[in-house]
């Protein structure tokens, strides 16, 4: 009997990365939202969960295991810590296991032992009596993605180095080689004489532990396979990056393929009653059952089916799609070649649909975006390839997210968040949403042997991203970048509301009058060059000079949105604007240094946004550049600004509020400097001009790069820009660049870093 949805557990705010079954009515889960949750009554759809751990470092939590005989749940993740909490205990004190130096990507409790593995290329067996490392398993050449305890002193590990290793104590005794890409997960079979492994090479392999032989290879998944589970009847369930959960006959091929409305299905665990739970990139945990009595209500089944059917599949992701050869619905009268087969059909409106053969019938799994019938959409008078509805808050109308296929999704995400006053921490989710709904995934039709024969090697060994492989091309893909990133969006009503509240809290002598507030309102309503200059010279300066320190942020905000709107003509008629701006930045750096000691970087971030917006304007030349004929050079004020900024960044705690967003703004500043260098002939003619930027990034680069991937990416683009412009003559790259490659290309597997690395090699 086919598996169908039994229940949906809703509560996590980001990807569900790992699940551990407690019993047939309870489970624990971990997520990129920094929480470990304990769920009860999982037989029915609910959001009845208790947070047993919220990462004290707000880091992703990626692995979990249930320590049954102690009633503890072990959680590990990005901060390299393992936390032990009581199941059902709401955020009580936790024990901590300290020893790993990188993301803890797997935990397993078996034979009375807890074993963990990490991106630090080790696995560790723990002594739970004194919370120390009992055994340190070292030998893998890269991240150890999974680990299993086979007995009191025997262990199994798999790695990004494409090998599986058997250990006796901390001594390696055997290697299992056969996978051609990263090995992600292991499943030890009953009797512990055989085990299964799954890989980024899109295969599952069966191994004999005693001989080391590969006994069988299972082919069917279209992308990376992330997890495996053993059903009570001996069948196997797998999950992967191709939107599917697959149930396999252990002695044959896939017997059921379940497609979900999300790209990544990260994890699976099996209940003793034969049901299984999966966690995915749409933040959901879904329970599936083949017992009719536990099927979800019809409306929930219909809702899931409609969500899958409405998924978007990018036309460009389909190899050799010939629109003229696509049949009509009549083709669905013929059965599929095998479980999981996919065909394209054209509906009566000319839209191409993808249908998958599953459970003896064809099921629609999405529309091919970009096919006939998919036209440009109009939003605010502008045509876009896509205009998405994004649900941010329950009960509130969805927000509109316009996007063109040729845009950088990270820039679009940043603009969307700024326009809708949403936290910068949502950026990765917005990017993922764009990627899921525009790029789709690759579909291949044919027998298992045909599919296996046509697969190209995946060169992205650690990808959590949604581009499935990179193909090196002869021309540069990424470098150079010559568009300045600015922060000029604002919401008038919100800005005015904040201004009025802060104005009321000032001493009467420095408050704005009602007429002045009206003038500010008029300026914001029509933010032309003259009005922008007025906001800088009159109101921004007043706030920064005379209001109390806690209220100055809004003064810098007014300047931020104004500097990019001032034209050269208006600036010539008001020489004081540049002086005001210079004074504002100098005094602001001092205030920001004091504010950092209170645990927030809000003021520093806003000042950096001001300076970012100044780059590329005539203000920047007036303030920081001394032209000497055809050669330009940075003046002493600019050098002092960078020196002060480097000092403040070095003093900023990683636990400070808005830390990651601020580091991204620092990276943007360095990036914008290099864009300005490429576009300014006078700077290119002075070899010393780039050395100022290089000296600055040598001081702050490592800290910025470690903070988050977007900051690291912009910083790396800056390096590429200078290399492209032949303004970086040293043959040795900056020290932080290798760390960027390790963190985000090798370990996290972000496709954009792999493409950028390809460009950098060609420069």
UniProtKB/TrEMBL annotation:
GO biological process, one term: double-strand break repair via nonhomologous end joining
Keyword Repeat: yes
Any Pfam family the entry gives: PUL
Gene3D superfamilies reported in the protein's UniProt record: Leucine-rich Repeat Variant (1.25.10.10), PFU (PLAA family ubiquitin binding), C-terminal domain (3.10.20.870), YVTN repeat-like/Quinoprotein amine dehydrogenase (2.130.10.10)
WD repeat residue numbers: 9-39, 97-129, 176-217, 218-251
InterPro entries named among the record's database cross-references: ARM-like (IPR011989), PFU (IPR015155), PFU_sf (IPR038122), PUL_dom (IPR013535), WD40/YVTN_repeat-like_dom_sf (IPR015943), WD40_PAC1 (IPR020472), WD40_repeat_CS (IPR019775), WD40_repeat_dom_sf (IPR036322)
SMART domains, A to Z: WD40
GO molecular function: K48-linked polyubiquitin modification-dependent protein binding; protein-containing complex binding; ubiquitin binding; ubiquitin-modified protein reader activity
Record domain PUL: where: 477-763
Compartment(s): Cytoplasm; Nucleus
Keywords: Cytoplasm, Nucleus, Repeat, WD repeat
UniProt domain PFU: residue ranges: 354-448
A single Gene Ontology CC term: cytoplasmic side of mitochondrial outer membrane
Domain of life, source organism: Eukaryota
Cross-referenced CDD domains: WD40 (cd00200)
Sequence similarity: Belongs to the WD repeat PLAP family.
UniProt-recorded name of the protein: Protein DOA1
The organism's taxonomic lineage, starting at the top: Eukaryota, Fungi, Dikarya, Ascomycota, Saccharomycotina
